[in-house]
Amino acid sequence: MLKFPFERLDAFQGKSAAIKRPREITQFSFDEQHKHHLDQRSLRYYYPPFVQVPYIPDKHRIDLSQGFETFSRHDDSVNLGLNPLLDTIRHYEEQNGAKLDADILTWRVAPFDFFGEYIEENQAAKAAELQASKDMNQRANKSLDKMQFWGYKFETLATLPKQWQDCTRDEIEGRENEIVDNHAQYCSVVRTGIGNHSIVIGGEVDAVEGCKPDDPNEPIPYVELKTSEDFHAGDNFAAKKFERKMLRFWAQSFLLGVPKVIIGFRSKDGHLQRLEEWKTLDIPSFVKNRGMRSWDGNICINFAAAFLDFLKQHITGEGTWTIEQKKGEKQILLSKIADAYDKDIVPPRFREHRATFNFESASKG
């Protein structure tokens, strides 16, 4: 067992490690039955919900709980692992005749959960937030399932299945009554880099603002859609809680190259109050210069770069490894659990493709 200790975060301060701008390589979709497709059929288009609109009376309040009873929810217990991502990469390599080499291949959420987990060292603040979270979860009208539903409901309210000019009036104005369904998903696959490490990341994208550009070198105007409980100016506890939430919003969007985060602020009982737009790259500077400085973007990036250095140094050759961080401990544990690769993680068909496909011949052809 190997250890990556981080007793103090001071060691990660300073100018951030080099970052390579994420560029989309390809994409794929899950359809309404959550079946994998090598296209962008499930891409949604951002169109704001009818909140704070002059011609709509203030008394009309959008209830994010509407439709909870008919929610068509994907069974998250069925873990597809890396299979959809690897199948997409295999298809990309066969089509382009070039191997997609990278030091790290991962979904957006792992191993970059560590990206923003260790920034707040104020244990008293953590304890207070934990107690507040427990108190919140004890409220009868705020079950975890319903709060998760509010996020999916907001995505339904804020997106269209086609570009605005191609949608019917009913599709645009009837979103409040649309059945919420999270089976269909659109995923982007990007190439990026942190420090000395090349990375290929796959992740779900909520929507695009306008349309994807024809030029593959142009940034894609993707948007990340989030919900958060509204708070009033002067409520420092709520402001700090929101600022820490923004760390995850920023990290998720930053890693995948999503340039904008759109937040739907809601009331305690789940009514949509207002919208707020943030440019992803502006979030760390706001926290540093105008916020409560509860986290530092450079520390996050340097922490991630150092951790990737650690992984690359120790994970060599064949084998299966686990990464673990025990609650309350200031270290991450790396353990080799098998000398052979796990076929549930990297399926044999992908390894066979890499071993037998003639990349050189395909590229010449």
Automatic annotation (TrEMBL):
Q: Which InterPro entries match?
A: RAI1, RAI1-like_fam
| RAI1-like domain location | 20-108, 118-351
**Listed EC numbers:** 3.6.1.-
Q: What is its main location?
A: nucleus
Keywords assigned by UniProt, alphabetized: Hydrolase, Metal-binding, Nuclease, Nucleotide-binding, Nucleus, RNA-binding
Q: Which reaction does it catalyse?
A: a 5'-end (N(7)-methyl 5'-triphosphoguanosine)-ribonucleoside-ribonucleotide in mRNA + H2O = a (N(7)-methyl 5'-triphosphoguanosine)-nucleoside + a 5'-end phospho-ribonucleoside in mRNA + H(+); a 5'-end triphospho-ribonucleoside in mRNA + H2O = a 5'-end phospho-ribonucleoside in mRNA + diphosphate + H(+); a 5'-end NAD(+)-phospho-ribonucleoside in mRNA + H2O = a 5'-end phospho-ribonucleoside in mRNA + NAD(+) + H(+)
Q: What does this protein do?
A: Decapping enzyme for NAD-capped RNAs: specifically hydrolyzes the nicotinamide adenine dinucleotide (NAD) cap from a subset of RNAs by removing the entire NAD moiety from the 5'-end of an NAD-capped RNA. The NAD-cap is present at the 5'-end of some RNAs and snoRNAs. In contrast to the canonical 5'-end N7 methylguanosine (m7G) cap, the NAD cap promotes mRNA decay. Also acts as a non-canonical decapping enzyme that removes the entire cap structure of m7G capped or incompletely capped RNAs.
State the family named in the UniProt similarity comment for this chain.
Belongs to the DXO/Dom3Z family.
> Mind telling me what this protein is named?
Decapping nuclease
Native organism is: Zasmidium cellare
